[in-house]
């Protein structure tokens, strides 16, 4: 029995009276050691590898950024914040930041709107539902570099398909590779192409978790389809919308592949009109300058920026979550009822342990899509 | 989904299948009560599908054409033809492209990293979800917090590390940093805490199984559905990865995305060749998608996160 201790409720573990024997043989000691050490052993590969390949490099970037450091020469003198002031004094750095934000805005806003629309289309009683769902996911398996090459041709300044189509409706050819804003739109389109269908499926999952009673009630109250969509669907999937916006922010601020392949040089055009910050980082480190110190400063600045934006996102999320209408409460109660139902159905009688539910540790971040409610809604059907 | 998994553990796979079938029948019954959507829905979805497919079809069209025609026509022709295969042959045989090497490398990297991510994430996820140990809570919070950290920004020390190890240009430079992901651990923790009942673990322990034996014979089989999805996502992510491989690998030892760059650098005047090559580069993953697309859809809908 002693070997059972890790999976026993805590009150029983501490009670020596429950132990059948006090005789400690070798195998038993080995067993107890097994129980104590195994959990740490199982998580250690992750923590060790992640520390080496994830955390250490990120921290060491700060160290490098405080030194003169070159690709060929290696570590040089300690220079304090000189690299930072040098980077901040570069107009190209600021230009790349503005480009990054501009591309991000052009990609995130239309992407979320389109993805919700597609999800609403998919969230119906479709014939061959799996076929349509797979269809919108096809772009996801095309590598961003390939997408960039293909769209680079579609958005060609001369004889590009997009310009030809615009010509049909009487619009003059746009300089997708020569003007600043059009180039941002073209690059954002590549990002949208790859991710819209993916996000649509995330929204679809959220939509399917919306309790159908709400729609039935709305129909009785005489709400039309559009009214149902804006008054029930959108508020109900709010958490998922925020989640998608946050993940696309983290990704959107690190755009690289699309820009690298958009023209032959891959450094954002002759005037750096579509150079993003990560491409700038690459150029400083491995381009002409080969200056690791400055590139690290760029990386660290971008990292801080992402953290700040993440925090802002988080605060906004909190406000929306607390000031929202009553609907989340409804969902939570609904989920809880379903959880209880599923649990009793699965365990067929005795509920396992009170900790069983809490075993997931702290609740997932508020931004995570309500997966549990999805699952249990499926259960109920 | 999770309760079906529990049924599979407690009452056997046959019972689980029956339960799933019952559930589906129920859902179909309630669904058919709903009205079918009209032609407008299908038209809009059809347009979406066309937009999803057209860029790939477009590579076939350009690949069937020749540079002069391409330079003067937005769409050189509307149907691909046999000259496409000349481009394929040329890409494959070109000494400047190393196509076969790139394909092998991509397969090795994607398979090894997916297997490692699945194994390490399941181990850690099992430990977090089902075992008691000191520091569990804080460590799990740490894992969740690191999911939002853009580790991509640590490229410079990573590069320094790789050149100190003399790994520049070698596959392990791409494989080792891809062996674990915080998301994978979080994903498996979430899944196992719901899908694996404590009774099963206890039963195995009472039967005298060691901790690792319990993991291997109880936790791992229970984790299979989530593990398959995690593996697929890691595979796609590594297969399409460009940023880091483009820094540490070179055209002598490339992956498929790096082939795209070589195509552009070597043949940028010959658009039909470049596009034929791009289709070839995309083809393997498309074929895989035809088989596992359904699981990918299910994985995203179960709450997968952008990699």
Notable characteristics:
heterodimer, A: 381 residues, mainly alpha, MetI-like fold, two-stranded antiparallel ribbon, 2 strands, flat, disordered N terminus, B: 307 residues, 16 helices, 0% strand
Give the largest chain-chain interface (CB within 8 Å). A-B, 122 and 126 residues
Helix- and strand-based class of chain A? mainly alpha
User: From the 3D coordinates, which CATH architecture of chain A would you assign?
Assistant: Orthogonal Bundle
Taking all Cα atoms into account, the compactness measure Rg of chain A is: 27 Å
List the helices and strands and how they pair.
The complex is a heterodimer of chains A (381) and B (307).
Chain A: H1 10-13, H2 26-65, E1 67-70, E2 74-78, H3 82-88, H4 91-122, H5 129-137, H6 144-154, H7 161-168, H8 180-208, H9 212-220, H10 225-236, H11 238-252, H12 257-260, H13 277-286, H14 292-323, H15 327-347, H16 354-358, H17 371-380
Antiparallel strand pairs in A: 1-2
Chain B: H1 2-11, H2 13-33, H3 39-63, H4 67-72, H5 83-93, H6 99-130, H7 136-146, H8 155-164, H9 172-175, H10 182-195, H11 198-206, H12 211-222, H13 224-240, H14 243-248, H15 256-267, H16 271-301
Helix pairs in contact in B: 1-2, 3-16, 5-16, 6-10, 6-13, 7-10, 11-12, 13-16, 15-16
How is this structure best summarized?
Chain A is mainly alpha-helical and 381 residues long.
Structure report:
The complex is a heterodimer of chains A (381) and B (307). Chain A is an all-alpha fold. Chain A has one domain (91-343, 365-380): Orthogonal Bundle (MetI-like fold). Helices cover 68% and strands 2% of the residues of chain A. Chain A is built from 17 helices and two strands. In chain A, helix 2 (26-65) crosses helix 14 (292-323), helix 4 runs parallel beside helix 8 and helix 13 (277-286) packs antiparallel against helix 14. With 307 residues, chain B is mostly helical. Chain B has one domain (81-301): MetI-like (MetI-like fold). Chain B is 75% helix and 0% strand. Chain B is built from 16 helices and no strands. In chain B, helix 6 (99-130) packs antiparallel against helix 13, helix 11 (198-206) runs antiparallel to helix 12 (211-222) and helix 15 (256-267) runs antiparallel to helix 16 (271-301). The longest helix of chain B has 32 residues, at 99-130. The two termini of chain B are 23 Å apart. Classes of the chains: A mainly alpha (381), B mainly alpha (307). The interface between A and B is large, with 122 and 126 residues.
């Amino acid at each position: 029995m002693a070997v059972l201790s890790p999976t026993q409720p805590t009150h029983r573990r501490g009670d020596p009276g429950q132990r059948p024997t006090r005789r400690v043989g070798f195998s038993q000691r080995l067993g107890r050691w097994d129980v104590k050490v195994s959990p740490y052993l199982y998580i250690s590969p992750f923590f060790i590898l992640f520390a080496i390949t994830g955390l250490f490099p990120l921290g060491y970037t700060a160290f490098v950024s405080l030194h003169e450091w070159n690709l060929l020469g290696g570590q040089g003198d300690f220079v304090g914040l000189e690299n930072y002031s040098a980077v901040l004094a570069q107009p190209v750095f600021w230009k790349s930041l503005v480009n990054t934000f501009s591309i991000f805005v052009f990609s995130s806003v239309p992407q979320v709107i389109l993805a919700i629309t597609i999800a609403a289309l998919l969230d119906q009683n479709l014939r061959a539902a799996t076929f349509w769902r797979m269809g919108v996911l096809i772009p996801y398996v095309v590598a961003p570099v390939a997408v960039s090459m293909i769209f680079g041709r579609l958005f060609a300044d001369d004889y590009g398909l997009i310009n030809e189509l615009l010509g049909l409706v009487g619009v003059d050819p746009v300089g997708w590779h020569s003007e600043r804003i059009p180039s941002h739109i073209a690059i954002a389109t590549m990002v949208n192409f790859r991710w819209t269908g993916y996000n649509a499926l995330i929204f679809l999952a959220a939509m399917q978790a919306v309790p159908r009673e709400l729609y039935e009630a709305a129909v009785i109250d005489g709400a039309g389809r559009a009214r149902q969509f804006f008054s029930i669907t959108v508020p109900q999937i709010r958490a998922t919308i925020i989640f998608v916006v946050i993940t696309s922010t983290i990704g959107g601020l690190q755009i690289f592949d699309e820009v690298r392949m958009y023209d032959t040089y891959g450094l954002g055009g002759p005037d750096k009109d579509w150079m993003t910050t990560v491409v700038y980082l690459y150029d400083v480190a491995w381009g002409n300058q080969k200056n690791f110190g400055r590139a690290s400063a760029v990386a660290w600045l971008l990292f801080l920026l992402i953290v700040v934006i993440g925090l802002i996102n988080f605060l906004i999320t909190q406000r929306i979550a607390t000031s929202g209408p009553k609907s989340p409460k409804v969902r939570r109660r609904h989920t809880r009822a379903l959880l209880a139902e599923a649990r009793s159905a699965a365990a067929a009688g005795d509920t396992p342990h009170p900790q069983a539910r809490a075993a997931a540790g702290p609740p997932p971040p508020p931004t995570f899509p309500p997966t549990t409610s999805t699952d249990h809604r499926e259960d109920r059907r | 989904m999770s309760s079906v998994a529990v049924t599979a553990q407690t009452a056997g796979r046959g019972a689980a299948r029956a339960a799933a079938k019952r559930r589906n029948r129920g859902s179909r019954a309630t669904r058919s009560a709903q009205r079918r959507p009209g032609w407008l829905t299908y038209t809009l979805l059809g347009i979406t599908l066309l937009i999803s497919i057209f860029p790939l079809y477009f590579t076939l069209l350009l690949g069937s054409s020749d540079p002069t025609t391409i330079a003067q026509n937005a769409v050189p022709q509307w149907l691909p033809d046999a000259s496409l295969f000349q481009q394929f042959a040329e890409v494959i045989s070109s000494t400047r492209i190393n196509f076969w090497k790139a394909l092998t490398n991509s397969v090795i990297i994607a398979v090894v990293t997916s297997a490692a991510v699945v194994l390490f994430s399941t181990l850690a996820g099992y430990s977090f979800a089902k075992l008691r140990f000191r520091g569990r809570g804080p460590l799990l919070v740490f894992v969740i917090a690191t999911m939002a950290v853009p580790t991509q920004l640590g490229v410079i020390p990573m590069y320094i590390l790789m050149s100190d190890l003399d790994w520049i240009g070698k596959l392990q430079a791409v494989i080792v940093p891809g062996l674990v992901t915080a998301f994978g651990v979080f994903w498996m923790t979430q899944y196992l805490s719901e899908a694996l009942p404590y009774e099963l673990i206890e039963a195995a322990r009472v039967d005298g199984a060691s901790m690792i034996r319990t993991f291997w014979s109880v936790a791992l089989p229970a984790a299979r559905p989530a593990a398959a999805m995690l593996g697929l996502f890691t595979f796609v992510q590594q297969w399409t990865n460009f940023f880091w491989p483009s820094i540490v690998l070179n055209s002598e030892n490339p992956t498929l995305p790096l082939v795209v760059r070589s195509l552009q650098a070597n043949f940028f005047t010959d658009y039909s060749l470049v596009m034929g090559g791009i289709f070839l580069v995309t083809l393997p993953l498309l074929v895989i998608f035809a088989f596992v697309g359904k699981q990918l859809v299910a994985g995203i809908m179960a709450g997968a996160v952008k990699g």
